[in-house]
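Escalation from tier 1.

The customer reports that the assembly of two entities below gives different structure tokens on two consecutive runs. Tier 1 could not reproduce it. I'm attaching the input and our single run for tier 2 to review.
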Amino acid sequence: MKLFASDNRTQLKVLSAVFAVVIVLAAFDSAFAQQKISRRFPAPKNVRFELKNVTGTITVETWDRDEIQVTALMDNRKATFNPRQTESGLVIDIVGDNRGRNDVGDMNFKIQLPSRSSVDLETRSGQIKVQNVQGDLVRAHIWTSGDIQMLGVNAARVFASNTSGDIFFDGEFVSGGTYEFKSGRGTISLQLPASCGFHLVATSSVKRISMGPFWDERRMQLLGEGRRITGDVGDGRASVTITNYQGEIKFFRR
Amino acid sequence: MNCENYQTLLSDFVDGALPAEDCTRLELHLSSCRDCTDARNDLSVIIDFCREQRGVYDPVPNQQAMWLRISNLIEAENGSANQVQAPTPETGWLFRLMHRSFSFGQLAGAVGAAVVIVTMATAFSVYRVANVAPSMRMPDIRTSVGSGATIDDRIRQQQETIAYWNQRVELNKARWNPQMRETFERNLGVIDAAVNDSIEQLKVNPHDAVSEDILNDALNDKVALLKEFSDL
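Tier 1 run:
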């Protein structure tokens, strides 16, 4: 007894072929739904780069060329991406460019720029990573959730803040510089060279501040039942303010 | 042009009534100036709000009767004020003083006496301020935190701002995708927890400067977060 008649076998083959074509088309569609855009811009000395994103990852790296390369990977091909060159540098405002739209989706950026650049980054959610920037300003702000990593940063003004997520800073404090780190719930970790000097005001509502090798009971004091530590490390010339509502603050020696 | 000059153009810019040349200059400036961009955004939010609220007020049932009542009230108040305030020539010392004529010598003497009194009072006040004990000086904001009224006032002021921006957020929240809504709610909860914790701490110890700093920070963060998400 035959399990399938010849007509049935033909139908089965046709159905299999159609199914395979559908799968291939679906794979192509998902692959091409994302759009990758890469653009280069000339960068004068001490250029300032500003990026205001909605959601997605932002990675900033330095290179030896006098130009900025912006590579954007966009979930939604209809999202607007319109970098603007200004007198001081380059501005990308995804929020402004897509105002009133709710289908922007994730936009992941990779930025390459000269090391002497200032960087001002902001997103509503997502990760921010900044490496080896040595300009005047490095600012990273996440309105809601996301981690911030700053590696090899040596700038006179550094600001890093989020509501939920960890903040990790590995860099140096310039004498006379200003450094602010703030999180609602997450661990703030600072990895610093032994020679650095700064005046510290560190506040953690949950009393979890670990100064590690930088603790000096003669030059530091605990306030508010251990929720705040103030005092000087080294020459005390840089100003460091750290606030964490529900998380921990940790210092490490590099 | 500086920021102040540019900001005077913002209203026409938002209305679309600015000449093309000014429009181009302003747009160029906005692309590089965060303060002016914020001012533009604030103005847009206010105008949008007014447009949305236009026409929501119900008309008064009987306008003529309402105006009659207002008119009667004004007349009644004017009448009673006249009765209370009008001085009678027999009893009002100020009336008699104003209507009396003085010689030049009398006027010069009165002015001289006034100058001497004011000078002495000023010198005495300066002496008192310079020599007052530190504990009696005007308290700065940080030390006045201890009084419950100061904290309550500050919270109340902030709550009014928060209520406004919260209303704006609620209007738009329905359009957000579920993931964004969940992220926003969760993070707002983190800030609210910090606000509530510091308020509880301040109830236990009203002089706790650390809790007061955290409260201020958290309230400011909440306003900023609501403001940022209000135009999403």
